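Structure tokens please, single chain.
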Amino acid sequence: MNRQELMHRIQETGFALTDLNLFLDSHPTNAPALEYFRDVKMQHAELVAQYEMMFGPLTAFDVDTKQGWTWIRDPWPWELED
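Here you go.
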């Protein structure tokens, strides 16, 4: 998966998590929704870990400062190639 495809999947799972969050706020005992939330949350975390391993941090909060302020070295996650 290239950078753009990976970022797209992260955005999709992030949107799904937000949508599920809103649904679960009003349906907190819905077992299928809770299970789906757990599944999507795990997918999202795996995608983020894969992105960060290949391309660097997605947010400034995830920068490993042992090598300095590396956040500004590469294009930011939203600066995708066309």
